[in-house]
């Protein structure tokens, strides 16, 4: 029998293409995941180690800068050298010009402790007391050169430091924009945070003995190992998430492989019958088929390892070339992952072939003697299947209902899976029905060829359902993600509308230049500009940190400008809206009053709070008229196109602000950033799920290709009877589109339903009342994409079918 | 050209001036070099209209090849084939396909019907493909003559072999092709069913005025024909009316 198996694999190798592609992709997915996570971890860890160059002992738990100073003294007393890794934020100015409000200032070891210095010099010299080293990238960005004088901090704690050099210190846990020596840091950074204290030349035990119990003293290697574990835990979480997608791809693979085997073995019934005729037992036939599956699985899994390794290395190389700032290390594939992935691939193939092999080998020897050559596979949904489907649907729905009422994730996942299995079981009934419905239209539009396509698509309901099932999984998941994400996004958007009512604002302390509004309108991405009148008023009140303030009075209609509904758009007659920041430590309280003083004349107003209006106060136009003698254009409120590039727009506006001595601010960059995060997340998830869809589409193409082989005589007959080659190709393509399109539409519908359940169950509790948002265009796009994928999958089979010679139908074969 | 066939051809041409199909110098060669097979060599043949022609000969003599060439299913290596006054050798695939569906009908030995269509759908398929609507009276007559009226809604696997062949025959007749080809139409049938199908073929010629070309091994089957062509080694050994 061994020769039979080997010969079969050789002869039918090409027919296994779908199974091979499915397993290869799924295994490659796993290997690529390993490659990416190992490289990411290596990158993180390499960086971490670089920040502890020269250290032998690490002391943690110092807390304050004052404590750290005492630690250094203790280490010195114990015969070693110690340095503090600390960070503070302070204002920085060059030539009296503030270049940063919150510059990150770190420490650099100096003097006797230079052995603990981890930064590497790029230009100039390492700093001593009274000097500062600036991170090279920061220096380039801010135009700071060696020899400049930088002032850190303000008031009595201000320090004037000379820039001694630039250093390479890009990332890592101790990274900062500039580094000063420890004595200087004690002055500017007394309120800073201490990462850790590192020491050398002193043993762990000696230092531990010299220090109170509450400090943690560890050898640097132990410390790094713990820190690495903590840092890479995040990567592991991502790895697990990637594996979830890999298992979806594996699940789709199982469907595709099982279907491939079913079709293939059905076509070889005569071979098996003949084997039985010449004396093979059923067990022998079954074993031969299993061995065949094993060979296919092992071959594809090996191919998967190769493809995954290549792809993983390629991705990492591309990532480090494209994003030099992202720390990626070397790819290090672990034998556990490789072995596990390979084994999984083989097991998936074997288990997927189990049922088809049993069914396929259960053939009577007599079948070989029957004259009929055509493979007549008819299948209907049995009662047992329907009962099982009903049970699965019932249990699944109950679990889903439970998840909605209890807002829990576990029953949702279980219910989703069980109910989906129920739907897949019903496939042989539902899918052909759906195809017939669509077929009515197709038959009308495309005539005989269309009707033939429909008849072909539904002639074997189980095969039809099995072919569409894999695609259905992918499309359902993708639609679910798209709809769920759109819903979350809409809710986030509404929340952001509350936080960021104004996209961008341009506010002047004087009357704005007349042409400024037009200049702003000319910026690409600006949708609308609303000039707002105002004046300068002195505002005073208990608990207020204000003085001369720009008071704006927006016109009554700013709907096209302001996002969401906000009270500050229509202030009451004696109300004044102030930003949160205007209230000092005692904060805003209901009923607070504010005195508006103009030329010694006082008007009392009720204080209110508004989010995101900038550094201004807002009153009604009548109120403003009562305060100042004349109002003039003082601010521009700007609405930006949703799709505009935040950096471009804000950059252009900032340039305009500098040129006209006005101030630009607004919530659009934050909003765009959040939107981008959501987009990236959705994109990543859809890309991961797309792997499953690719596998499914290959499965559709392969099943069609196999069907074409078994329909050779039919096609020859049709050609003899006058079906042109083009129409025959059309028939096959139409069948492919029907299968994939119906899977697409069903999947889109199911995905929407599951998304609704998911939103109710998971987000419902967090946000409260959420309404499902269905992005129709995107959902339709997903369904259409599935149909187009089907069209592509049908290209090769239909070409093949069209090459059948009409005379072949008459050959006695 | 075998000298013995010339007078017969000449005679036939005088007796029946219009022929439904004819070949001149028809040659069909398969393969190249060592494996070259001359399936048909320089065949001159006339199929008179309104006759029931049987093609006989030993296995491998080229009967099926001749029929494929006559029916426009295969392209000759050289020579011409004319059907209904139109030269079809040298036509492009698309032209041939359209020509076939307008002028030629088929009944095969086995696997005549599409399994997913009902008997009626199978019968009407050629008309549908040609975009023609069936002549209801003609359809009723054919169905009636063949006695398959109560089988029209059945699928092929729900019918006996003889019934399937009669449905195939109905399909061949319903479009009123210039030529109806049958390749071993009774190869899979018992003697009773064979007699039925052959009887219908003869009736279709006598009563419906159809031209039929049938390939067969079976002398009993050939006895239903009124015209006989003998092929040997890819050459026409004899052709003429059955005595
Ligand atoms: N596709 C082909 N390739 C090569 N040779 C072929 C091909 N088809 C037919 N032949 C050869 O051409 C010759 C005639 O074949 P054909 O099928 O016409 O014979 P036949 O008279 O129909 O035989 P049978 O009575 O067995 O059906 C045979 O020698 C056959 O081997
Ligand atoms: Mg033959």
Per the principal axes of the C-alpha atoms, what is the gross shape of chain A?
globular
Distance between the termini of chain A: 26 Å
* SSE topology string of chain B: HEEEHEEHEHHHEHEHEE
CATH homolog superfamily of chain B: P-loop containing nucleotide triphosphate hydrolases
Secondary structure tally, helices of chain B: 8
Name the CATH architecture of chain B: 3-Layer(aba) Sandwich
Low-confidence stretches of chain B: 1-17
Keywords (chain B): ATP-binding, Nucleotide-binding, Transport
GO molecular function, one term (chain B): transmembrane transporter activity
Protein name (chain B): ABC transporter ATP-binding protein
GO cellular component, one term (chain B): plasma membrane
List keywords for this structure.
heterodimer, A: 813 residues, alpha+beta, 9-stranded mixed sheet, 6-stranded mixed beta barrel, 19 strands, 16% strand, globular, B: 243 residues, alpha/beta, Rossmann fold, 4-stranded antiparallel sheet, 8 helices, 36% helix, 26% strand, binds adenosine-5'-triphosphate, binds magnesium ion
Give a summary of the structure in a few sentences.
The complex is a heterodimer of chains A (813) and B (243). Chain A has 813 residues and is α+β, with helices and mostly antiparallel strands.
């Amino acid at each position: 029998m061994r020769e039979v198996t080997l010969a079969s694999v050789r002869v039918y190798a090409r027919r296994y293409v779908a199974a091979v592609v499915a397993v290869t992709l799924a295994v490659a997915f796993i290997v690529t995941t390993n490659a990416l996570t190992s490289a990411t971890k290596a990158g993180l860890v390499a960086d971490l180690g670089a920040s502890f160059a020269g250290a032998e002992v690490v002391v943690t738990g110092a807390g304050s800068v004052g404590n750290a100073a005492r630690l250094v003294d203790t280490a010195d007393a114990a015969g070693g050298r110690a340095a503090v890794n600390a960070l503070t934020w302070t204002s920085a100015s060059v030539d009296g010009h503030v270049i940063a409000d919150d510059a990150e200032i770190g420490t650099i070891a100096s003097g006797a402790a230079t052995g603990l210095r981890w930064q590497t010099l790029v230009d100039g010299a390492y700093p001593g007391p009274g000097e500062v080293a600036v991170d090279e990238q920061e220096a380039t960005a801010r135009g700071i050169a060696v020899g400049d004088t930088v002032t850190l901090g303000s008031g009595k704690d201000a320090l004037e430091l000379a820039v001694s050099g630039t250093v390479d210190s890009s990332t890592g846990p101790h990274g900062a924009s500039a580094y000063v020596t420890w004595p200087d840091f004690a002055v500017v950074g007394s309120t800073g945070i201490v990462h850790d204290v590192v020491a050398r030349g002193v043993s762990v035990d000696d230092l531990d003995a010299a220090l109170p119990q509450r400090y943690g003293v560890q050898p640097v290697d132990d410390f790094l190992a713990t820190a690495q574990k903590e840092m890479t835990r995040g990567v592991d979480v991502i790895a697990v998430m990637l594996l979830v997608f890999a298992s979806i791809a594996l699940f789709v693979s199982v469907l595709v492989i099982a279907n491939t085997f079913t079709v293939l073995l059905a076509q070889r019934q005569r071979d098996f019958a003949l084997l039985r005729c010449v004396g093979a037992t059923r067990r022998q036939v079954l074993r031969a088929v299993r061995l065949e599956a094993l060979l296919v699985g092992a071959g594809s899994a090996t191919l998967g390892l190769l493809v995954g390794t290549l792809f993983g290395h390629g991705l990492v190389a591309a990532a480090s070339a494209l994003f030099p700032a992202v720390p990626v290390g070397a790819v290090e594939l672990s034998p556990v992952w490789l072995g596990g992935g390979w084994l999984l691939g083989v097991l998936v193939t074997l288990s997927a072939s189990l049922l088809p092999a049993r069914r396929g080998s259960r053939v009577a020897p007599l079948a070989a003697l029957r004259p009929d050559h055509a493979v007549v596979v008819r299948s209907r949904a049995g009662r047992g299947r329907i009962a099982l489907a009903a049970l699965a649907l019932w249990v699944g729905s109950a679990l889903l209902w439970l998840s909605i009422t209890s807002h829990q994730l576990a029953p949702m996942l279980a219910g989703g899976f069980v109910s989906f299995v129920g739907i897949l079981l019903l496939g042989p009934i539902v899918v052909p029905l759906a195809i017939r419905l669509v077929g009515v239209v197709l038959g009308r539009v495309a005539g005989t060829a269309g009707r033939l396509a429909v008849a072909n698509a539904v002639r074997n309901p189980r095969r039809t359902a099995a072919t569409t099932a894999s695609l259905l999984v992918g499309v359902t998941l993708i639609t679910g993600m798209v709809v769920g994400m759109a819903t979350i996004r809409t809710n986030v958007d509404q929340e952001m509308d509350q936080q960021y009512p104004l996209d961008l604002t341009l506010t002047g302390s004087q009357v704005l230049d007349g042409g400024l509004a037009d200049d702003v309108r000319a910026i690409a991405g600006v949708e609308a500009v609303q000039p707002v009148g105002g004046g300068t008023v002195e505002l005073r009140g208990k608990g207020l940190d204000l003085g001369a303030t720009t008071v704006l009075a927006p016109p009554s209609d700013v709907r096209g400008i302001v996002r969401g509904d906000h009270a500050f758009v229509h202030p009451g007659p004696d109300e004044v809206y102030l930003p949160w920041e205007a209230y000092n430590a005692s904060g805003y309280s209901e009923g607070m009053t504010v005195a508006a003083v103009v030329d010694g004349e006082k008007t009392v107003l009720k204080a209110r709070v508004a989010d995101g209006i900038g550094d201004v106060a807002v009153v009604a136009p009548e109120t403003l008229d009562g305060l100042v003698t004349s109002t003039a254009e003082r601010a521009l409120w700007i609405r930006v196109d949703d799709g505009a590039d935040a950096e471009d727009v804000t950059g252009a506006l900032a340039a305009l602000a500098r040129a006209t001595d006005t101030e630009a601010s607004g919530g659009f960059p934050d909003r765009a950033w959040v939107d981008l995060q959501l987009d990236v997340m959705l994109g990543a998830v859809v890309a991961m799920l797309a792997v499953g869809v690719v596998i499914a589409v290959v499965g559709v193409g392969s099943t069609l290709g196999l069907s074409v082989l078994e329909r050779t005589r039919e096609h020859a007959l049709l050609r003899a009877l006058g079906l042109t080659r083009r129409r025959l190709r059309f028939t096959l393509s139409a069948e492919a589109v029907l299968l994939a399109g119906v899977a697409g539409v069903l999947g889109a519908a199911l995905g929407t339903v599951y998304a609704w359940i998911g939103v109710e169950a998971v987000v419902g509790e967090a946000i409260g009342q959420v309404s499902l948002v269905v992005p129709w265009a995107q959902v339709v796009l997903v369904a259409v994409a599935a149909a187009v994928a089907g069209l592509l999958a049908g290209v090769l089979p239909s070409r093949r079918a069209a090459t059948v010679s009409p005379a072949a139908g008459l050959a006695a074969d | 050209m075998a000298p013995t066939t010339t007078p017969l051809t000449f005679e036939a041409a005088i007796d029946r001036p219009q022929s439904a199909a004819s070949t001149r110098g028809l040659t069909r060669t398969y393969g190249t070099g060592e494996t070259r097979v001359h399936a048909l060599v320089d065949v001159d043949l006339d199929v008179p209209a309104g006759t029931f022609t049987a093609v006989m000969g030993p296995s491998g003599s080229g009967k099926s090849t001749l029929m494929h060439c006559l029916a426009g299913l295969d392209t000759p290596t050289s020579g011409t084939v004319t059907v209904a006054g139109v030269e079809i050798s040298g036509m492009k695939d698309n032209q041939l396909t359209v020509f076939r569906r307008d002028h030629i009908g088929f009944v095969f030995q086995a696997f005549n019907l599409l399994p997913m269509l009902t008997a009626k759908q199978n019968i009407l398929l050629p008309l549908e493909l040609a975009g023609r609507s069936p002549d209801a009276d003609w359809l009723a007559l054919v169905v009636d003559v063949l006695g398959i009226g109560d089988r029209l809604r059945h699928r092929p696997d729900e019918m006996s072999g003889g019934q399937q062949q009669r449905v195939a025959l109905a399909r061949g007749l319903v479009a009123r092709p210039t030529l109806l080809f049958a390749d071993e139409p009774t190869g899979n049938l018992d003697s009773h069913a064979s007699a039925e199908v052959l009887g219908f073929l003869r009736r279709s010629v006598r009563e419906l005025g159809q031209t039929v070309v049938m390939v067969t091994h079976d002398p009993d089957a050939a006895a239903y024909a009124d015209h006989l062509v003998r092929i040997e080694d890819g050459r026409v050994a004899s052709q003429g009316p059955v005595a």
